[in-house]
Design goal:
By secondary structure, the protein is mainly α. It contains three helices and no strands. Belongs to the GatC family.
Length: 96
Amino acid sequence: MEVNEVLVQQLADLARLEFNDQEKVEIRGELQRMITFVEKLNELDTTHVKPLLHLTDDYNVFREDRVIPSVTREEALQNAPAATEAYFKVPKIIKK
């Protein structure tokens, strides 16, 4: 695949980027090197290679859910600048 100015401009438009002429030349060269690398990878024989689903054999280790002592409601509301018996009072921020 050949990278040309039209392709670079299409990619710039899709990404909503603007490049000057010098930057377009540099990007064209970088894209061409990337595509050449990918084409080189396509030459490899992968017929007996299993698809890689995960990079490691690790898996999620979940901890057991336990109820542990925490701050009581009264302790939490004790230092609040404004509170009711059960809730924090906060200033109204949505105006109609």
